[in-house]
Amino acid sequence: MRRLVVIGCGYTAKRFVTLHGESFDAVDVTARSPDKAALLAAEGLRAHSFDGSALAPALKEALERATHLLVSAPPDDLGDPTLRAAGAALRAAPDLAWIGYLSTIGVYADADGGWVDETTPPEADSLRGARRIAVEREWLALGAETGVPTQIFRLAGIYGPGRSQIENLKAGTAKRLVKPGQVFNRIHVDDIAAALAAGIARPQAGPIVNVTDDEPAPPQDVVAYAADLLNVPPPPEVAFETADISPMARSFYSSNKRVANRVLREALGVDLAYPTYREGIAALAREG
């Protein structure tokens, strides 16, 4: 019996469950609050509340019976809450055959616009990235200890239905920030789901997988392209140095790199449905 447990069923993990959940005999998911768990349950999912503290008996049982585990919950100040609360249950799971951990390309340091790949040592230049590096190592160590194939999926900037420049333009919140030479990778949520399915099918690949598109691009170009598809004027260009944005948003611009996806393509055999932002944004525009 194939049983998937998803820790942190947010935007990305939920999309995976929607597209690939039928390949499992049972699926258990978690949310941080009882209210959010109730919303997931209302959609027909077997949902548990888990805020990173003690495991409820039903979730502990699900973890001990799991064959596949997808972890989408982020680290906190103390490390990984899932490992702290569920490590013993996972070590007691006799049928666990795969662990997937959703990380970020933020673990790579600034490359001044140059290319990095899975062979590039992670040297994050932010506290968030440093926490991710530490937690990645903890999950890989658990996999080595238990003999369970473990894959780390380093995700680029995620977009998809309900979460793109199409919605931002319609809402009037899109900004066209310009920082000369700055580029970002992106990834459509459906391509992430395909990468996870491929990882489950090929659990020995990796263990590090960059899940990115093929064309890192300046953010202002993406906004302009989306505006053209909607036949609306793009917002005016704003210099990054003078832009009124949050410290969190500003921090993302401190790292400039192009992230290659060789393992995704060659080892996992994934052909991206949306290899650049153009295919992805155009599909979202067609979908309305």
Kindly report the CATH topology of the largest domain: Rossmann fold
Task: Return residue spans where pLDDT drops below 50 for at least 5 consecutive residues.
Answer: none
Overall mean confidence score, pLDDT: 96
Q: What strand line-up does the widest sheet have?
A: 3-2-1-4-5-7-11
Q: What is the H-and-E element order?
A: EHEHEHEHEEHEEHEEHEHEHEHH
* Total DSSP helices: 11
Helix/sheet category: alpha/beta
Overall 3D shape: globular
Biggest pleated sheet? 7 strands, parallel
- Rounded to the nearest angstrom, the distance between the terminal CA atoms is 39 Å
- Strand percent estimate: 15-25%
What does this structure look like?
The protein is of the alpha/beta class and 288 residues long. It has two domains: 3-157 and 187-211, NAD(P)-binding Rossmann-like Domain (Rossmann fold, 3-Layer(aba) Sandwich); 161-185 and 215-256 and 275-287. It is 39% helix and 18% strand. It has helices spanning 11-20, 34-42, 57-64, 81-91, 127-146, 165-171, 189-201, 219-230, 247-252, 262-267, 277-287; strands spanning 3-7, 26-31, 46-49, 68-71, 98-104, 115-116, 150-155, 157-159, 176-178, 186-188, 208-211, 237-239, 258-259. Helix 1 (11-20) crosses helix 7 (189-201). The protein starts with a strand and ends with a helix.
